Each structure stands twice: as C-alpha cells, then as structure tokens.
Amino acid sequence: MDANSLDNISHADPAQRKDREDRWQQVVAVSAALFAEKGYEATSLREIAERVGMLKGSLYHYINGKSDLLVHVLREAHSRGVLVLTGIAEREGRALERLEDVITAHARYIFTERVFTAGFIEAHRHLTPDRAREFDLAERNYRKAVERLIARGQAEGELRHDIDPKVSALCLLGFLNSLHGWAKPASGLTTRRLCDHALVMGLGGLRKA
C-alpha cells in the first residue's frame, strides 16, 4: 500500500480504518491466488477487483498499478513464511532441536499456505532486480541462519562433520520448497504426516549415526 493510502487510513475513524485494512488484506490474498492460478501477466486488475467485490478504480486507493501488487504479495508471503522461519532458526537452544523446529515449520507453511507459496513463486519471477533485492536479502538471511544451525550441530556433535553447512542448507531448503509441487491437502495427506516425513527425510542425511 502506498504512503498516501496509509496516511488516509491512519486519519480515518477506527471502524473505517478497520474496514479498509481488511479490504486491503483481501486484495493481497486474491492477488496471490490469481497470480498462482493464472500467472501474473494473465491476471488483470479488473479480475482482482471483481473477485474482491469492488470497482477496478477503487484499487487505485491502495496501489499505483498491478506491479505494486507483486511486492505486496511477496511481503505478505515473507511475513508469514521466511521472516517467521528465520526467527525460529535464530532461537536459543541446541542446534538439532532448532533444526527440527525449522523443518517442521517450513513444511507446515508450504502445506497450509499454498496460495501464498504459489503466488510468491509466480510473483518473484516478474520483479525488477531493484525490487527483488529486498526479498533476496531476506531469503539469504534465512539460508544463512540454517547454515549456522548445521555448523552448530556439527560443533555440538549431533550432525555429521563430513558435510558442508552451506551446501547442506541449500539442499535442505530446496527439498522443503519442492514440497509445494506435490503436497496437497486434497490428496488426504495430513499436515502432521507431511511434517513427520519432512523431518525424517530432511535430517536423515545430516544426523550423526
């Protein structure tokens, strides 16, 4: 949402402000769903407005153009996913326990937030390099946090010493992100079962025998 829109909302009465904030969250969620379903280029502002239940012109109270929605979809996906996961990875405690928490939370996010995961994947490829930098940095910080966990796990004697922490972090996160391609609630797979399998597979090659 641009600065003018935020300023307008902040000066509205509480009920109006809450309504606009709720409507804005709906716009972002619908945009993510349509980007995932049809692709960014094939999605029009008119479709987004119609699905939200508003006039196309009303969207310009929130954004300057469709490209703005790319950034907001990614920011929402990051706030729900990458930033939360980074926080989990940086908590105090034994590295193996934190790594288990990260794997479980990452798998759960992919499984339960499929719309934002798919919307993130679609939106990211259309960002300009300048706009992508914000998200690339957040993703790198997450990967570095996982890398540090693996190195700590090695130092604590619970993870194998013959593996490279950076390569291992890239492999682990690549595996977890790949769950998006096939793990669907409609398949009958439960969140708990997916997370249990992700732990076994994700830690199997890392844990010291």
UniProtKB/TrEMBL annotation:
Keywords: DNA-binding, Transcription, Transcription regulation. Residues 1-20 are annotated as: Disordered. Residues 44-63 bind DNA. GO terms for molecular function: DNA-binding transcription factor activity; transcription cis-regulatory region binding. InterPro entries: Homeodomain-like_sf, HTH-type_TetR-like_transc_reg, HTH_TetR, KstR2_TetR_C, Tet_transcr_reg_TetR-rel_C_sf. The keyword rRNA-binding does not apply. Gene3D superfamilies: Homeodomain-like (1.10.10.60), Tetracycline Repressor, domain 2 (1.10.357.10). Residues 21-81 form the HTH tetR-type domain. This is HTH tetR-type domain-containing protein. It comes from Croceicoccus pelagius.
